[in-house]
Amino acid sequence: MTSKPKTYHVKSFGCQMNVYDGERMAELMAADGLTQADAVDADIVVLNTCHIRERATEKVYSDIGRLRKDQLRKNGKTPMIAVAGCVAQAEGQEIFTRAKVDVVVGPQAYHNLPDLVAKAAAGTPSLDTDMPLLSKFGALPTRRKVAPSAFLTVQEGCDKFCTYCVVPYTRGAEISRPFAAIVDEAKALVDAGAREITLLGQNVNAWSEDTRGLHDLIRDLDRIPGLARIRYTTSHPNDMTQGLIDAHRDVESLMPFLHLPVQAGSDRVLKAMNRSHTRDSYLRLLDRVRAVRPDIALSGDFIVGFPGETDAEFEDTLSLVDAVGYAQAYSFKYSPRPGTPAAAIVEQVPEAVMDERLQRLQAALNRDQHAFNAATVGRTCTVLLERPGKLPGQLIGKSPWLQSVHLIGDHAIGDLVEVTLAAAGPNSLTGIERIAQAA
């Protein structure tokens, strides 16, 4: 039996939903009387894991070993370790066998974390990978103090079953949180200091309640006093309704930014991925969005080297990138996830070929991101200041198009400042203040 931990550290990997979950786990630990600490000093370290990326499971075991060595070297002891998130859901009991951790908890059960930690402190390693429908949200503490830009999960799970993806197996079926609960949490976030809220979901634009869709939810959130900005991610082309497109035209607080993953530019590859769109339907959808919001910044996801992808099919992806002109995008080499249909396809693309394709794709995406940033130079826009910069008096914030903007001036984090975008780099811009708005 060990004593109950007094300090905690939560380390999150992967997507924005994991960041949200990590914040909520930290709030649970704090509500249970624990104090936040660095990983090298904390009595318990929670690894909030992601199972999407290559070798995700092995990286978890590597982190566990490193944490133990670092604490033993510094403090002469090792911490309690909880593995949470999608790797915990996928691996379950195997984690105890391989790493002898104290707690394993899946992404739908982390509201039970304090009880699991208490059992582990009493000498019983604890496992909970149940997947109850949204019960965790009712058990989480009220939001207290948050950053100017905050995440809010509104939808979880996925019914799309893309052949490369483990999300339906680790997060479960698509389910939407109740409208009233979302509005209540959004108001609590604003009361706690948020000026911007990003609505999250594996397929966030699949959110629905009765006859309401995500566009209706956004229009209601727009009425919350003090909420200046609304964003949402990640969307699926199949759920991009006309109502949501029209919201980009009508709702001033809805930022002109859309992350809409396409994954590939070849119709054959898209069909093999079990994506429900074609190259043409995706491009026509973007045309409809741009028709109502011409200044919208577009973002996407790409997988190179999907099993069987030919050189010509990869060229289709490059030509789609050229046609769209993404403001930013994420790109990855395909890696087989155990249990997914794509992992069983015989025609796996050689690693060297995937490396070369990824370099070419990223060069095109970086080119277009820099071009988009350069095209915004001279615009006047409002920047939400979020964190200190590296230079004296420098603060960093986000433009409406989700660009990082550096500004020097007499302002505080959380201020909304009207600036002229004066210079562009590949990943950020420099702003010159025009009119400072009240915080």
TrEMBL record:
GO cellular component: cytosol
GO molecular function: 4 iron, 4 sulfur cluster binding; metal ion binding; tRNA-2-methylthio-N(6)-dimethylallyladenosine(37) synthase activity
EC number: 2.8.4.3
Gene3D superfamilies found in the cross-reference section: Methylthiotransferase, N-terminal domain, tm_1862 like domain
Annotated TM spans: none
Binding site for [4Fe-4S] cluster 2: 158, 162, 165
Catalytic activity reported: N(6)-dimethylallyladenosine(37) in tRNA + (sulfur carrier)-SH + AH2 + 2 S-adenosyl-L-methionine = 2-methylsulfanyl-N(6)-dimethylallyladenosine(37) in tRNA + (sulfur carrier)-H + 5'-deoxyadenosine + L-methionine + A + S-adenosyl-L-homocysteine + 2 H(+)
Annotated Pfam families: Radical_SAM, UPF0004
Intracellular or extracellular location(s): Cytoplasm
Statement: the UniProt record of this protein carries the keyword S-adenosyl-L-methionine: yes
Binding site residues for [4Fe-4S] cluster 1: 15, 50, 86
Span of domain TRAM: 374-435
Top-level lineage group: Bacteria
Coiled-coil positions: none
Key words, A-Z: 4Fe-4S, Cytoplasm, Iron, Iron-sulfur, Metal-binding, S-adenosyl-L-methionine, Transferase, tRNA processing
Domain Radical SAM core, residue spans: 144-371
Residues in MTTase N-terminal domain copies: 6-122
Cofactor note: Binds 2 [4Fe-4S] clusters. One cluster is coordinated with 3 cysteines and an exchangeable S-adenosyl-L-methionine.
PANTHER family: CDK5 REGULATORY SUBUNIT-ASSOCIATED PROTEIN 1 (PTHR43020), MITOCHONDRIAL TRNA METHYLTHIOTRANSFERASE CDK5RAP1 (PTHR43020:SF2)
Family: Belongs to the methylthiotransferase family. MiaB subfamily.
HAMAP family: tRNA_metthiotr_MiaB (MF_01864)
Assembly with partners or alone: Monomer.
Job of this protein: Catalyzes the methylthiolation of N6-(dimethylallyl)adenosine (i(6)A), leading to the formation of 2-methylthio-N6-(dimethylallyl)adenosine (ms(2)i(6)A) at position 37 in tRNAs that read codons beginning with uridine.
Record's protein name: tRNA-2-methylthio-N(6)-dimethylallyladenosine synthase
